[in-house]
Amino acid sequence: MSKKVLIATVKPFAPAAVEGIREVLTKAGYELSVLEKYESQDELIAAVADVDAMIIRSDKATKEVIEAAKNLKVIVRAGAGFDNIDCAACTERGVVAMNTPGQNSNAVAELALGMMVFLARNGFNGKAGSELKGKKIGIHAYGNVGRNVGRVAKGFGMEVYAFDPFMSKEQIEEAGAIAIETVEELYSTCDYVSLHIPANVHTKGSINYDLVNRMPKGGVLVNTARKEVIDEAGLVKLMADRDDIKYISDVAPDNAAEYAQFDGRYFFTPKKMGAQTAEANINAGIAGANQIVNFIENGDEKFRVNK
Ligand code: 3PG
Q: Which residue's alpha carbon is at the smallest distance from atom 3 of ligand 1?
C-alpha cells in the first residue's frame, strides 16, 4: 500500500514548495494530503488519523496529535527549532522526529539584519538614524542561523563576535567570528546581540535583566529565536530602567502591550516571518520530503532529533 504523507501547516508554505514536495513524494509512489491554515488542534488530530509521515512547521505536534496518528512513523519539522514537537511522545510511540537544519537559515539571517536596519533608521520616519557599519554584533549561539547572520553582518561592515557553549574558540574562529569565552562578556562587548539559541529547559527565560543590562549604551537585543528564551518581565523592567536599550523580535512577546511605553525602541513582527520566504519554504519542505522517503525506504535517520 502506498504511504500517506500529510503537510500540516497553519502558516502555509509558498505554493512552489508544496509542488516540490509533491514531486518528491509522487516519484516515490506516496500520496500527499495538505492541511493548511487550520484553526483548531482538533482539525489536525482528525487529519493525522491514517498518515505514515507528516511535515510540519511551527505546528504543535503534541502528545495527543502523536497518539492520534496511529500509523505515524516519521514527523519532520521543516525548519530548525523542534520545541513544538513532543519528542518524548514520539519516542514512546516509536516515531522518528526530524528537523531540516540549515535549510531556512539565510532567510532568518536576512530578516534579522533587515529588522536591525529598520530600527536603526527609526522605522523610516524621516529622522536621522544610525548605521550598522563599525558596530559590534554578538551572535549568541553560532549554528546555521548564527553563521548566516555573521556573514550578512560582515557585508554591512559590522565586527562579528560569537559565543557558543558547544563550540571551541578555534571552531568559532574557523567559522569566521571572533570567539568570546563567556556569555556575559558577549553582552558587555556588543552593540547588537542576535539570539540563536533553541528554546529548551536550559534556555527558557535565560535572557534576563542582568544579562541584557551588561550591554553598552544603545544596546539592541535581536530575537529571531523563540520568545520563550526571554525573561519577559525582566526585559520590560530593564527597558523601563534604561531608556537606551532596544528590543527587536520576530513575533511579539506575550506581554507586547507593555512595550507601548517604549515608543521607537522596539519592533515586533506581527507573525513569525524569519523563515517565510519562497526559497526557505522550498529548501526546508523538499529536504523534509526527501528525509521522509530516505527514512521509509532506507531507514536513514540522519536528521533524527528524538532519542
Ligand atoms: C525554525 O525554527 O526553523 C524557524 O523558527 C521557522 O519557523 P516557521 O517554519 O514556523 O516559520
A: 79
104 lines ligand 1 (CB under 6 A): yes
Mean pLDDT, consecutive 10-residue segments, the chain of 307 residues?
96 98 98 98 98 98 98 98 98 98 98 98 97 98 98 98 98 98 98 98 98 98 98 98 98 96 97 97 98 98 97
Q: How far is the CA of 189 from the centre of ligand 1 (A)?
A: 29
Per CATH, the number for 4-103+277-298 is: 3.40.50.720
Q: Which helix (H) or strand (E) holds 32?
A: strand 31-36
At the fourth CATH level, the homologous superfamily of domain 105-268 is NAD(P)-binding Rossmann-like Domain (3.40.50.720)
Using CA atoms of 287, 115, 236, 258 in order, give the dihedral in degrees to the nearest 10: -100
Distance CA 302, CA 6 (A): 21
Question: In which residue ranges of the chain is CATH 3.40.50.720 found?
Answer: 4-103+277-298, 105-268
On whether the CB atoms of residues 53 and 288 are closer than 8 A, the answer is no
Q: How many helices (H) and strands (E) does the chain have?
A: 11, 12
Residue listed under C-alpha cell 512577546: 253
